[in-house]
Amino acid sequence: MKTILVTGGNGQLAKCIKEVVSGNKKMQFVFANADELDITNQKEVQTFFDSNEFDYCINCAAYTAVDLAEKHKKKAQEINVKGVSNLALTCKNKGTILIQISTDFVFDGEKKEPYTESDDTNPIGVYGQTKLGGEKEIQRLLKKYFIIRTSWLYSEYGNNFMKTMLKHGKEKDQLNVVNDQKGTPTYAKDLAKVILKIIKSESEDYGLYNYSNEGAISWFDFTKEIFYQEKMEVKTNPVSTSAYPTLAKRPKNSVLDKTKIKQVFQMEIPYWKDALKEALNSYRKL
Known about the structure:
By secondary structure, the protein is an alpha/beta fold. Helix content is 41%, strand content 18%.
């Protein structure tokens, strides 16, 4: 029986993984939140791995507050680089395969076409810089790893764009939403299923992969569809990024090319509207 460690156990992706693997008797999953496992503490990571034998480690622990990262660079660095390095080093010593969740923010967004795994990285903010730093630590220390870059992650759990818009939609008659940043929303439960598929495949096609749902839209498009599917009457106005200043810059284009992951793992990826429908259905049941 395979044993899999999931760090960041309280986050939305970890919660989606927990739901997806519920009832799976062929694998044993250990979910560890920040109180149970501080990945920034090398000794703690080593001790945790010494008391368990893990075949895989899925690292969902991350500093993901994009704007706050600009103010708290040290903390973002500590979790996204040092913490990842600690996990990678321990995985190397224990022969554990590391699955790291990374981000579209490693790119500057200047490319017109979707980004492939081989495109040059050029993060424009602290969050993207630290996530890229974590990727580099894994590549420096390990041969057996999967790094999955994803984008615009949301679900019925945690804090995310879908839930924020639903909250604002109940409180306000109209909203201004950015219309000049292009990307693809990713339902965390779909990403969880992909991670499980990779583990089940026992693939040795290690390396870097892109994954998001299919389609390319703006935050404005995403908001309109959320309200449409929820039958909410909210006037939504498209605005430019310059009209909505934030501490961190966002990539103008963060659409990811998924050709590689589709070919290697023989998968079909759900379209973003279909994924949103499933997410909203799950959200209503909570």
